[in-house]
Amino acid sequence: DLGCFTHDPGFVATASCSSKITFIDGDSGVLLYRGYPIEQLAESCEFTEVAYLLMNGELPNQSQLQDFNLEINDRAIIHESLRKFFDGFHYDAHPMAMLVGVVGSLSAFYHSDLNIKDPVSRKVCATRLIGKMPTIAAASYRHSVGRPFVYPRIELSYCENFLNMMFSRSSQNYIDQDHYIDQDFVKALNLLFILHADHEQNASTSTVRLAASTGANPYACIAAGIAALWGPAHGGANEAVLNMLAEIGTVENVPKYIAKAKDPEDPFRLMGFGHRVYKNFDPRATIIRKTCHEILKKTQSSDPLFELALAVEEQALKDDYFIERKLYPNVDFYSGIIYKALNIPVEMFTVMFAIARTAGWVAHWMEMMEDASTPISRPRQLYVGPTRRDFQPIDER
Ligand code: SDX
């Protein structure tokens, strides 16, 4: 019931849909997953616990979480024929291109999941997607660096499995003796996945819901969401932040780029700043900033990019242009720096976002499928083209 949270009744009239999953109050910087504050979930949960909450509406008890983790790990492996898909990609294909293609093809392998009217097969499909996304993501990275794929391991946690599949220096299905999976890295990744898991009707989630409203199969809907997330104004912003910092180069150059961002004639925008909804600090950015400090202290990398990021943040936050427009750092401003500290390559940053957001996408897909009366979304438009006119033969034009 949106009314209980919405300050402005007129908001309900403009809302594109109603949902019980995530609540955002952009003015107060509030983000709730199924009523729980993001700060509490980020502090206390593992990612799969939050994925369970988003999908089912309640936090799991110990045995429910244990069963869910086992099911996710059990479904993490991909069909051997699917591995051949990667051979078709050029080695330097963007991992998001591989993700869109491979996820979209899953409907060719798991026909039983296409019975979207059956709640049991819907749940199987959702856990299959959450389980397989890290495996497909890691495989796209291994393909790009010419390394053999590493299989998921049943006894590892979600984040441990991903890091092992990404960085294990061996093709056998075991953790390299000399490749110690750093638990601080696992903790940071777990936090980033929780913070990126869902965010109400953002562009990619709205894309998933639009596709789902036509009755398209779930793999096609999630592939559509991945494609929408790729844009630099949305999920591609974390990659764009790192590219922007690399372009700025030094702290001395920051004022010049702040001025460019303010110039209406200049298309340059400060990546990682601003948000469609948060007209205050993005609560996720506040949480992430603290972890950024911890990880960089841990890796003893006084990464010049982080120092540069702090200089950009400091100068933008005291600039009237940004203050008047309430443009604050968003979740993407710091997440790229942490991914870089975790040795995740820049081109994989948006893939990381997609792994996490799959939990939200499948939750919204399930929510829509549960309500059989959901009509197809068919947005109307404000027509601003030419009024009616008659055809002219080509020799009269
Ligand atoms: C995500 O929807 C979600 O929830 C998304 C997300 C999620 O979890 O799914 O939160 C993830 O996508 C975060 C946003 C990541 N994108 C970026 O960091 C890219 C840079 N940000 C901008 O592209 C922009 O801020 C948007 C698109 C994110 C939001 O745009 P708004 O709030 O609708 O602002 P606007 O386009 O209406 O502009 C308002 C004014 C304009 O200036 P004036 O016309 O008033 O003079 O603010 C300016 C804009 O030019 N402006 C910026 C700016 N963002 C807006 N100026 C410089 N740098 C920027 N980043």
TrEMBL record:
Annotated signal peptide: none
GO molecular function terms noted in the UniProt entry: citrate synthase activity
Entry keyword set: Acyltransferase, Transferase, Tricarboxylic acid cycle
Organism domain of life: Bacteria
Reaction catalysed by this enzyme: oxaloacetate + acetyl-CoA + H2O = citrate + CoA + H(+)
Pfam families assigned: Citrate_synt
Pathway(s) it belongs to: Carbohydrate metabolism; tricarboxylic acid cycle; isocitrate from oxaloacetate: step 1/2
Presence of keyword Acyltransferase: yes
Record's keyword annotation contains Nucleotidyltransferase: no
Family: Belongs to the citrate synthase family.
The protein's name: Citrate synthase
Organism: Methylomonas rapida
